[in-house]
Structures are given as structure tokens and as C-alpha cells.
Amino acid sequence: MNIALFLQMAAEACPDRRALTCDGEHYTYVELYAAAKRAAYKFSTANCRYVTLIDVSSPAVPIVLMGAAMAGIPYVPINYRLSEEQIVPLLERIDPAYMILGSKEGDYSRNNGVTQNTKDFMDEVLTGEEMEVTWNEDPTAVAVQLFTSGTTGTPKAAILRHEHLMSYILGSVDFMGAGEDEATLVSVPPYHIAGISAVMSSIYACRRVVQLANFHPAEWLQLCVNEGVTNAFVVPTMLTRIIEEISKSDFDSADLKSIVSIAYGGGKMPIPIIEQALKLIPNVNFTNAYGLTETSSTITLLDPEDHRTAIDHDDAAIHARLGSVGKPLPSVEVEIRDEDGKQLSPWEPGEIYVRGPQVSGEYEDRSVLDDDGWFPTRDAGYLDDHGYLYLSGRADDVIVRGGENLSPGEIEDLLHRHPAITDSAAVGMPSEEWGEVVALAVVKAPGQDITEDEIRQHIHEHLRSSRVPEVIHFTSELPYNETGKLLRRVVSEWFRIEGD
Known about the structure:
3 domains, Luciferase, domain 3, 9-stranded mixed sheet, 15 helices
């Protein structure tokens, strides 16, 4: 099977239904399908090994994704925010490529394939004669290749085959499951797995996609009102800014009456933020979705009922579920293992392993699945007695102090609840005596003040003394990437510089 089947089925079932809205322009399913077939013809006759898009979200995204699938050529979207010096080595790895380029400036002439700007490409594929395309039905063919967004080292190229993406969509979305009035707002970037899965799942459900190329909370809120948005996906930093915008501006949260559900993921959500969101817009169904590029998107869900049950529950253990990422999807298995690969019991922290038909666990030069098909996520966490998964951060982020493993998330969760602190990041700092000690970066709440000694005392009162930081650095903001992940290695560099 081929992921292009999603668009074909939607175009045949509801050809005149609006499929996409961008900058006030609307496109139907039959228009997108015809454009994707014209794109497939261009790609397949260009003698290129890959198709790449370096641009913001636009109608070109679903057309290029589905057109590449029809042509049997891997789709490789690249982060348009990268510098020319960062993009060129990635292009060399997919040369020759059919490159569709937005407003990004730079010299990309070393690409031996075809280079075309987005506007010219769209003008050509939206008009012209009808094309008939027969595509490859091999489920093991590569559909998408995504370069990981590591902060150090050479980005890895994660491989997602048609069978992985098909398994995720077919296992989580009902065909034509959306009503004609439903619309999902996509504001995550097109080179992220969340952006790709949002497009595919919306097409299969026949739900209109509303695109916001560059996120701004006020624009996001206004677009929800103007387009009658019913569904949305945001990363934690986006939801934080949306809640702040509602709280500080004249925007009336009652105007969000069209929104039925908001899913969030891509980074750890502070419990105070989701608590505030649940109370500020109580009619919205919130879902926490945890997944990775290598797993074709979501593998666990904390569903709306979990949120409603936990928010005001007297049982602290049940209330704490607001800090979890929920339970695995029916087709997904999750285990927690120690450093020797031994499966751990509930509440024991370790590395998260995942297995299922949507799990690729493959890079361009190797597969990292074990003999039984388990993928080591490199995320750290634990399961509770009821199968809820809790994240502790990356396995590499664990602070080892005198042989004791300390979770940065444990410290950060505590500080997120302090009224004088809006954000924090705990990292390990080299120590001759202990090997590593805790270093802490803190963002104070507006108009609030708190001293280093007060922070240390607060941590000492609630956690073991080994969690008390040796060094505290106050900053106006912490570094996050565009998908809401804390750039912890950047924070670590602050303390290495201080210690030099």
C-alpha cells in the first residue's frame, strides 16, 4: 500500500469538500489530488532520487508529499530555519534532488537535480491537463526521510516506509470520520513528523486543514475564530503562549466555541500550564500525544477523559496523571528497561522501549531495532501500576552524582509549581568530588523575585539533598527549538563556560 491512497480515497469520496485553507485561499480534495498527480509526473521525469521542500507550511506541503509518494521517490522536507551552511551538507546527502525552495536565500547550486521556487511549482501543478499516475504499491518502499534536529553532531536521517505510516494512520483514524464543518489548525512546521502526520490523518478523515505558516498566539486565536477551527495540535511552548495571550489580552476564551479538541506533544508539558488551560477553556477536550519521528508519530495518549478525571481528583496519584503521556495505542507495546536491557517493574525508571507495526527504528545506514523488533527510544521514564507512561527526559540527560542517577524532570516539575518561577532546566555539571552535580537555570515569573538560597531551600524541603543545585543561573528565557523541545545541551554549555 502507498500513502497516496489516502488522498485518492478522499478525492473520490468527497471531491468538492474543502481540503485545505491557507491565507484565505481554499482547495478541494479533487484539486489537491489532481495537483499531486501533476507533481508526480514532474518528479518521475526529472531523474532525481529524492524530493525535498524547504519552505514554510503552504498548499505545496500535501501536494509534494503525495506527489512524491505517487512517483515512488522519498520525500525529504528540510528545516527552512537552518543556515545555508547547515542545509548544504543535507542536500549533498540526497543529491540529486527535486528541490522546491521558498524564500530561503543561499547558494544551493551544488544540487545536481532540479531547483524550483514554490510559487512557480504551485502555478504549474494547479493547472494543466489531467494526469493519470500508476504508483508503486510496495509497502516497504521509503515514503519519508526526516533529518533529526540534534543540537550537536551530524543529523541522523530517519527512514519511514509506507507500511509504517499506513499502520499509524489506519490504526488511529477513521476514513471520512470528520464532518464537513470540521477543520484542524496545523501550526507545527512541515519538516516535523507531527506536521506530516497531521496532514495525512486529516486527509484520511476528510477534515479540512487550516495552515498557519508562522506561529503567533494572537494570530492562532484569531484564525481559530475566523475559520471555525474544531481541532488543533500544539507543542507545549505554543500552548503556554496561547494561555498567556488569552489571560493578558482582551480575547474572550468563549470565542473559541468552535474548538472541540486540542492535542499537544513534542515536549514535556508543565502541569501548571495544562491545569490553567483546562480551567480557562473547560469545554475543550485536551489530549497529550507522545511519539517520535522513528515511530511515525504518536505511540501513547493521555485522552480527554484522563484529563477531566485527574484535574480535580483528591487522590494525588490520579491527579499526577496530568504529568504523564498516557497509555500506549492498541497496536503499540511499551517497556521500561535498565542499562543491561532487563525489563523493569512499575515505578522503576529506565529507558523506554517501544514495539509495533508503525515503529520504524531505522536510519539511512542502519536499523536499531533489536532481534524482537523493540526500538530503544533513548527517552527515560517509567510506567505506573495502571500502565500510564511518565517521561523523565532523554536517557543521556540523567545526572549521575556520586553514582546516584538524578532525573532533571523531577527537579523541574517541582519548580514549575513555584509561583515565582515560570521555567527551569536542570543539567549536570562536572565535579571532581561527585563526578556530576546539579546546575539549574531559572526563569523568574514577571514581577516576582526569588533568591538562590530560597530555591535551594525549596528543593531541599521537597526532594533529597542530592537534588539541591550547586550553581543557579537566572535567565530571561530558556532555549527551545521550534517544536518545543528544550535544548538542554545549550543550557549545559552555559555552566561549562561559567566553570572555565
